[in-house]
């Protein structure tokens, strides 16, 4: 059965795969937000496990965006020069997201053993900012690039799934 699933994913258009990755990343962020809420409510993961969860999510999101910046976007820009401005805007979002991820990692890296309201407010504010920019970024990217990605046939991406299309199931 796994072979059938793998074959199906290789035949799925790249834009559809991108939507699946965005859904997965949204779910991962929601899980992190739930774990943060549980921690600050005193009923969740120990701080070291919360940091590990954050690093895992941050790494996945960074891998996705780096894969787009280095792999997908150059190919799209070459084949569709009219989308270069869109790609530039998406890269700017990636930089903003990286900055927020850095802030979040620092905050979670310095969590007190006993949750406190000030730290909770700071962490939740970073998560809200991250959530907002991710959502607008994903919607814009999907609106502008899905049909282009669905029309593309890049044999290298089919042979070896690129980083921007990976989820934890692919690792």
From TrEMBL:
Stretch forming the signal peptide: none
The protein's matches in Gene3D superfamilies, at most eight in alphabetical order, are given as:
nmb1532 protein domain like
Q: List each copy of the Hemerythrin-like domain by range.
A: 18-147
The protein depicted here goes by the name Hemerythrin domain-containing protein
Instruction: Enumerate the Pfam families for this protein.
Output: Hemerythrin
Q: Supply the InterPro entries for this chain.
A: Dimeric_xanthone_biosynth, Hemerythrin-like
Q: Where does the source fall among the domains of life?
A: Bacteria
Source organism per UniProt: Saccharopolyspora elongata
